[in-house]
Amino acid sequence: MKVLILETADTAQERVVSLIAQTMRDKPNAVLGLATGGTMLPVYEKLVALHKNGGPSFRDVTTFNLDEYVGLAPEHPQSYRSYMNDVLFGKVDINLQRTHLPRGDARNPEDEALRYEAAIAQCGGLDLQLLGLGHNGHIGFNEPTSSLKSRTRIKTLTRETRDANSRYFRADETIPTFAITMGVGTILDARHCLLLATGAQKADAVAAMIEGPLAAVCPASALQLHPKATIVIDMAAAAKLKLLDYYLHVHPDGTAREVV
Ligand code: PGA
């Protein structure tokens, strides 16, 4: 695990954007796994700005998002398809045919999950998987006690997750109970996992992910098994790490230390 600690949320987001851009420069037809949530909004904003200012093109990029709410059609304003169209896909030169999210309105969500998993494999797997982190340690919608070998499937959202996401729904709207989500095993198959967590409210989950035991009760701890996982956090999210000084020593200001 590479733990990159930046002073502020802003510089942490910039670091993540530069790592995504690096992947796109190295492989213009990269397959990117994308994430939603509040943490990612400034990341996409900065990525769009970079793209418009001479940054890498999305023309040959393929994307697969982590998850989608069961029961929401793509055009529903709170669907993750709408989120992605609004904050990224509609603002860059991506071919929409190559952007994928599970269909929340599929007649048979379980079949849809299997189809989605197969579609990722058909594209040759994920080059880079972008991840946020739930307060409860979830990645994607893999809630605590998700199998660490799970594949794309239906998960029941915890009350905590539904409460955290209720701010995006109108008072008269029902917050979905289920989601289709890539499994922890699906995520671990990505060639590079890149997780961003910012803010003091994520400090407990960050500590459990990096320094806690490998345990299904904190699904993000499964990233300890990944050969190439980069964790980007700001100082506030890093506050509860026991080995904070060591991470800062290895990667001062989130950069790589020269081996001499
Ligand atoms: P947030 O969600 O970015 O809105 O905090 C992260 C997550 O639940 O994965």
Task: Explain what you see.
It is a single chain. This protein has one domain (2-254): Rossmann fold. The protein contains 8 helices and 10 strands. It has helices at residues 9-26, 41-52, 80-87, 109-122, 159-165, 184-188, 203-211, 244-250; strands at 2-6, 31-34, 62-65, 67-69, 99-100, 128-131, 153-156, 178-181, 193-197, 229-234. The mean pLDDT is 96. The structure holds 2-phosphoglycolic acid.
Strand content: 15-25%
- The helix/strand class is alpha/beta
Total domain modules:
1
The top-level CATH class is: Alpha Beta
Number of strands: 10
Residues in helix, %: 25-40%
List the helices and strands and how they pair.
Layout: E1 2-6, H1 9-26, E2 31-34, H2 41-52, E3 62-65, E4 67-69, H3 80-87, E5 99-100, H4 109-122, E6 128-131, E7 153-156, H5 159-165, E8 178-181, H6 184-188, E9 193-197, H7 203-211, E10 229-234, H8 244-250
Parallel strand pairs: 1-10, 2-3, 2-6, 3-5, 6-9, 9-10
Antiparallel strand pairs: 4-8, 7-8
Helix pairs in contact: 1-2
The chain binds 2-phosphoglycolic acid.
Write a brief caption for the model.
The protein has 260 residues and is an alpha/beta fold. It has one domain: Rossmann fold (3-Layer(aba) Sandwich), CATH 3.40.50.
